[in-house]
């Protein structure tokens, strides 16, 4: 797997994969090649043995958006390494595909957000299945302040997360939203914790998910993601098919044995 990049680090500890953006010069803003690399990472993570992924940033920030500085735009490898260099449409589609890979990753993804999370960085966080934030995190769909409309999936992700009216408020005002307001007013995040407790809080959630039945949880993620665009009849049919798969797994047998033996189950993803 293509896990090596100077600004994107991947660490796998047991069944938990942590993907860290590390571009301190731009507060973890992502260059074109960083976006592409992120997409490749999440394309493969679901088949790596990991059961949950944590997406985060180094140096006290999550992601300040797209790094469009002159030095970064070249990606260190000339025009061929930079999909934005010759064709904006093609380049944006390449970067959009990276966002799809994160959102569609077959394992659950948790965004761990500290510091700034703005613009494309906000879209990146919302691509995750859940968002845990520190009390010093701040969020903004900052595009309007740059003379831009929404991109990096935020036109869809914001509406899915907070509903149409609040999504418009966030997007049209481009306000900077402190983490407590992001939770209390917008429900933009799942939880806000003190900064020095963020690592432990996310590790606990990740451990809970990693200890669950991987096949069933993967299908559960797909069911919920697809629920917004399907009818009840379609959802019931998908549930029926999924349960038919689960019934044939060793994990379901283990769950029932553990229940009768009054012990925690040990799931193997089979």
What is the share of helical residues? 40-55%
What is the number of independent domains? 2
Number of strands: 9
**Structural class of the helices, strands and pairings?**
alpha/beta
H/E element order: EEHEHHEEHEEHHEHEHHHH
In terms of DSSP E residues, the strand content is 5-15%
* Strand line-up in the sheet with most strands: 1-2-3-4-6-9
CATH topology of the largest domain: 2-enoyl-CoA Hydratase, Chain A, domain 1
What's the CATH class of the largest domain, please?
A: Alpha Beta
Q: Do you know the CATH architecture of the largest domain?
A: Alpha-Beta Complex
The CATH superfamily of the largest domain appears as 2-enoyl-CoA Hydratase, Chain A, domain 1
The pLDDT mean sits at 90
Number of helices: 11
C-alpha Rg (nearest Å): 19 Å
Can you summarize this structure?
The chain is α/β, with parallel strands linked by helices and 270 residues long. The protein has helices at residues 32-45, 70-73, 88-103, 120-127, 154-162, 164-173, 179-184, 198-210, 214-227, 232-247, 250-261, and strands at 8-13, 16-21, 52-57, 109-113, 116-118, 130-134, 138-140, 177-178, 191-193. Residues 70-81 have low confidence and may be disordered.
Please explain how this structure is put together.
- The protein contains eleven helices and nine strands.
- The protein is an alpha/beta fold and 270 residues long.
- It folds into two domains: 8-210, 2-enoyl-CoA Hydratase, Chain A, domain 1; 214-261.
- Helix 3 (88-103) runs parallel beside helix 4 (120-127).
- 41% of the residues are buried.
- The chain has helices at residues 32-45, 70-73, 88-103, 120-127, 154-162, 164-173, 179-184, 198-210, 214-227, 232-247, 250-261, and strands at 8-13, 16-21, 52-57, 109-113, 116-118, 130-134, 138-140, 177-178, 191-193.
- The longest helix has 16 residues, at 88-103.
């Amino acid at each position: 797997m293509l896990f090596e990049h100077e600004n994107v680090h991947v660490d796998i500890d047991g069944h938990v994969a942590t993907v860290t953006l590390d571009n301190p010069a731009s507060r973890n803003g992502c260059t074109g090649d960083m976006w592409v690399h992120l997409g490749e990472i999440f394309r493969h993570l679901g088949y790596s043995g990991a059961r949950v992924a944590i997406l985060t940033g180094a140096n006290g920030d999550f992601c300040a958006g797209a790094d469009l500085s002159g030095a970064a735009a070249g990606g260190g490898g000339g025009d061929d390494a930079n999909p934005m260099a010759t064709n904006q449409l093609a380049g944006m589609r390449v970067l959009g595909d990276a966002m799809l890979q994160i959102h569609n990753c077959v394992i659950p993804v948790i965004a761990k957000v500290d510091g700034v999370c703005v613009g494309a960085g906000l879209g990146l966080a919302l691509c995750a299945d859940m968002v845990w934030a520190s009390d010093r995190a701040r969020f903004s769909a900052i595009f309007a302040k740059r003379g831009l409309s929404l991109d990096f999936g935020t036109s869809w992700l914001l509406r899915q997360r907070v509903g149409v009216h609040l999504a418009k408020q966030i997007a049209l005002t481009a306000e900077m939203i402190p983490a407590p307001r992001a939770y209390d007013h917008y429900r933009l995040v799942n939880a806000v914790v003190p900064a020095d407790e963020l690592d432990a809080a996310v590790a606990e959630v990740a451990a809970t998910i990693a200890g669950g039945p991987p096949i069933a949880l993967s299908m559960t993620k797909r069911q919920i993601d697809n629920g917004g665009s399907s009818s009840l009849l379609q959802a019931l049919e998908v549930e029926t098919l999924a349960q038919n798969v689960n019934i044939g797994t060793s994990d379901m047998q283990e769950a029932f044995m553990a229940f009768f033996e009054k012990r925690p189950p040990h799931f193997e993803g089979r």
